[in-house]
Design brief:
single chain, mainly alpha, 2 helices
Length: 70
């Protein structure tokens, strides 16, 4: 059974992979425009990673609050 934390870790992994692809592509691109596209890909991966981390922290905080109320 897949939990929300499992989905968040998968989301984080996707973000990190997108960052890695953008970083690798940046080193093989010669054009300035394509380099900017690669920076955009890196930025998207960073945002995905931050969203996954925020979701994990929120889930952890909600779980702690739920345990305090018991």
């Amino acid at each position: 059974m897949e939990t929300k934390i499992d989905k968040d870790f998968a989301f984080l992994a996707v973000g990190v992979i997108v960052i890695m692809i953008g970083t690798f592509a940046r080193f093989i691109m010669d054009s300035h425009l394509l380099s900017l596209v690669c920076w955009g890909i890196i930025a998207v991966g960073t945002v995905l990673s931050f969203m996954a981390i925020a979701s994990m922290l929120n889930t952890s905080h909600e779980r702690d609050l739920h345990q305090e109320n018991k």
